[in-house]
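quick q for whoever's on today - can somebody do inverse folding on this one?? i tried earlier but teh output was garbage lol. tokens:
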């Protein structure tokens, strides 16, 4: 029913109107009489209390309106009493919670008011209240947010300042900011930025504030703040304007960038150093290209001369000596590079053994004095004080250091003299400290150049490098070797006057070491002639396992010239087959080969019980490589390139005194494989003096591996007629080129096939022929494998 004022004609209509109004006012309403009995509840009151009006009617208010709050004294009775006694409106206590009929809780706010009749007499009480859950939740969220903000503010590792946007004065600072500048928090409060060392003066501070007010944000990448002690701290400074209530505030975030600037500086330095190192390495590679190509040019040029000129012309030009000298220089360059790589990788080891200092110095002096004499330089040696007879060191590395230092002195000195001074700086102490000064009257260096001498891949001056040559690694290696010997290498120099390089190394304990006084060069022992080679004779049968045809040929020739009989194999699998079916007194085993390498072959031979000495041959020269070879079962170790004297001495040492019987060539060869061979007397043409024959001789010799490959293939296919024709051709052509030793075995092959001998007999004759052909001067066994592959296709 819709009521209007015009239609209200009775009290009942008025009551209906009031109920309709109270039901829709948006707040909960409960009306009670003077006895606190429920007389009315609107729908919202029903929802919050959980009571329907009909059920609650005439019930006491305390049973329907149950509350708790922060003021326990404000019970329903107290609330009603306050209203009725004073006839005044009484607010509900803060944080009042209404307990609903089902136990639910509603945070509420509201008041209790008296109901007065027309005469002003109290007729009852009305409770008007509303749900404030959303407001309470928002207040709690705000409180949590404030706690979190304060926690971040207090614990931040950046400085934070809050300023008044109008006055630009500090309202608050966090602990980090206070600690950053060394002041207590109170020092900042109420001050402007320029007063706390952010900007230099008030004018700059005002300009910054004007910019901030205009843009709402301002940033400085690198702003120096002044610490309490007067020092300056570089910071990144960011300010933003925010609204807080009715006022604007400025939040300044200050980040200490000291570490960032240090890292940037270090990175810039590292980049410069890397660029410098890269340039140095590029210069080094260019220099090394020149250093390597120079001896290589001489080696290739004079080797070509040996091939195309007469023996008399080659002898007159000194071809062999030039090739040998340049090869040794090339080997020295390679050794320097390898030494540096081993030192930098921590793989170069030094030993400490007793060393006769006099003998070592005598060898170095005898080696270097002739070089000085070639340039007309005087060479002097002095001994100061008492010199230890024996020191504990690595003689090889000590010799390497001194040869480098003296060699440099000779290289960079055009006139004057070279002097060596030897002394023991530790005389009287627990340890020998060997000091050797190498002085020269050479070109000298500036202090700046001396500072770069020991940097890898760097030489003092590029122009000096071009003039004198060298890798720029010698001094670096020398210093690092000296460090490994518990010492150092240092230098002093003056341009145009000369240089002095000083080597110091630990010579071991001094207790019990004999001291020599009055030592002079004339009292040093005479060193053995390094060029004097003993006549070493070998007696025994050796299996040479080497996949490089040139190396195999060289080693076989050296061993045979010394009296040994040699069979060869070009991979480990063939070596195992030969060593387990024939008797050898020693095996020379290359460790890097195809099919089966030397390590695997040695391990297999040892697993089969073979006790024959096995000497490892490897181009790897590091200590761990030697250990790896010995661990595989090798008896000894030789690094390539192998000097002939060292090869023969090592072989003689391991051969023993009871060599096995030597089988004939046919028994040692295997026609089924082109690799093994026996005997090693090179067959030279008796027409070698005829220049017309020599011009076409190489082409013929180059084609011989193809003929050997064909013979092996024909034998496998049992094509004896074709084999007979090939043997006949070789009989004629080899004789025509002056290789008479081929004629007889070729004739035997031809006759055996004509006579109808069995395959086994023919095979033996073919094996003998192949063995003789392989001994022809210039024969390249490595080509046999290529021929075999082509035939197989």
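ok took a stab at it. sequence:
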């Amino acid at each position: 029913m819709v009521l209007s004022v015009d239609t209200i004609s009775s009290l009942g209509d008025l009551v209906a109107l009031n109920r309709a109004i109270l039901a829709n006012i948006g707040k909960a309403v409960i009306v009670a009489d003077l006895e606190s009995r429920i007389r009315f509840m609107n729908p919202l009151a029903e929802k919050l209390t959980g009571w329907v009006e009909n059920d609650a009617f005439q019930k006491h208010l305390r049973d329907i309106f149950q509350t708790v709050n922060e003021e326990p004294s404000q019970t329903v009775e107290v609330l009603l009493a306050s209203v009725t006694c004073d006839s005044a409106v009484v607010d509900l206590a803060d944080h009042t919670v209404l307990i609903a009929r089902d136990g639910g809780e509603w945070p509420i706010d509201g008041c209790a008011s008296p109901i007065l009749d027309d005469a002003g007499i109290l007729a009852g009480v009305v409770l008007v209240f509303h749900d404030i859950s959303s407001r309470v939740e928002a207040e709690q969220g705000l409180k949590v947010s404030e706690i979190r903000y304060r926690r971040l503010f207090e614990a931040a590792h950046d400085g934070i300042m809050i300023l008044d946007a109008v006055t630009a004065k500090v309202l608050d600072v966090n602990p980090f900011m206070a600690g950053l500048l060394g002041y207590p928090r109170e020092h900042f409060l109420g001050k402007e930025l320029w007063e706390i060392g952010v900007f230099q003066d008030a004018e700059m501070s005002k300009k910054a504030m004007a910019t901030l007010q205009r843009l709402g944000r301002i940033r400085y990448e690198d702003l120096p703040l002044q610490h309490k002690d007067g020092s300056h701290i570089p910071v990144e400074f960011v300010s933003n304007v925010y609204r807080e209530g009715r006022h604007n505030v400025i939040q300044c975030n200050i980040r200490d960038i000291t570490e960032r600037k240090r890292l940037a500086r270090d990175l810039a330095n590292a980049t410069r150093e890397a660029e410098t190192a890269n340039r140095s390495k590029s210069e080094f590679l260019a220099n090394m290209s020149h250093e390597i190509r120079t001896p290589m040019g001489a080696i290739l040029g004079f080797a070509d001369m040996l091939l195309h000129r007469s023996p008399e012309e080659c002898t007159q030009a000194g071809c062999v000596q030039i090739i040998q000298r340049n090869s040794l220089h090339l080997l020295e360059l390679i050794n320097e590079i390898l030494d540096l790589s081993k030192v930098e990788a921590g793989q170069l080891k030094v030993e400490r053994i007793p060393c006769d200092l006099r003998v070592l110095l005598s060898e170095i002096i005898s080696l270097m004095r002739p070089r000085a004499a070639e340039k007309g330089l005087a060479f002097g040696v002095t001994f100061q004080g008492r010199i230890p007879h024996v020191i504990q060191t690595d003689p090889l590395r000590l010799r390497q250091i001194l040869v480098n230092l003296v060699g440099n002195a000779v290289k960079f000195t055009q006139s004057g003299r070279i002097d060596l001074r030897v002394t023991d700086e530790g005389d009287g102490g627990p340890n020998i400290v060997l000091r050797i000064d190498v002085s020269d009257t050479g070109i000298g260096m500036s202090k700046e150049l001396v500072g770069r001498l020991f940097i890898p891949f760097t030489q003092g001056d590029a122009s000096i490098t071009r003039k004198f040559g060298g890798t720029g690694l010698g001094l670096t290696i020398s210093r690092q070797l000296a460090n490994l010997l518990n010492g150092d290498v240092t230098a002093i120099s003056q341009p145009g006057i000369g240089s002095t390089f000083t080597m110091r190394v630990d010579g071991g304990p001094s207790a019990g070491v004999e001291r020599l006084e009055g030592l002079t060069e004339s009292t040093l022992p005479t060193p053995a002639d390094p060029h004097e080679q003993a006549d070493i004779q070998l007696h025994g049968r050796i299996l040479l396992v080497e996949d490089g045809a040139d190396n195999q040929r060289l080693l076989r020739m050296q061993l045979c010239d010394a009296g040994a009989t040699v069979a060869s194999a070009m991979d480990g699998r063939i070596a195992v087959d030969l060593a387990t079916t024939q008797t050898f007194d020693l095996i020379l085993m290359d460790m890097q080969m195809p099919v089966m390498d030397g390590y695997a072959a040695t391990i297999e031979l040892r697993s089969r019980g073979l006790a024959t000495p096995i000497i490892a041959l490897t181009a790897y020269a590091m200590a761990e490589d030697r250990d790896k070879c010995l661990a595989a079962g090798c008896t000894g170790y030789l690094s390539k390139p192998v000097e002939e004297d060292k090869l023969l001495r090592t072989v003689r040492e391991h051969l023993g005194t009871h060599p096995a019987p030597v089988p004939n060539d046919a028994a040692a060869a295997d026609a089924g494989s082109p690799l093994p061979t026996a005997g090693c007397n090179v067959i030279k043409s008796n027409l070698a003096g005829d220049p017309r024959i020599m011009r076409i001789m190489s082409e013929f010799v180059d084609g011989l591996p193809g003929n050997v490959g064909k013979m092996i293939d024909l034998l496998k296919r049992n094509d004896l007629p074709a084999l007979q024709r090939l043997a006949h051709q070789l009989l004629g052509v080899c004789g025509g080129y002056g290789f008479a030793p081929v004629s007889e075995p070729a004739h035997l092959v031809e006759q055996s096939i004509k006579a109808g001998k069995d395959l086994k007999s023919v095979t033996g004759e073919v094996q003998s022929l192949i063995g003789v052909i392989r001994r022809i001067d210039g024969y390249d066994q490595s080509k046999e494998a290529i021929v075999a592959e082509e035939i197989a296709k």
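fwiw The CA atoms of residues 217 and 277 lie 45 Å apart. also The radius of gyration is 53 Å. so keep that in mind when u check it
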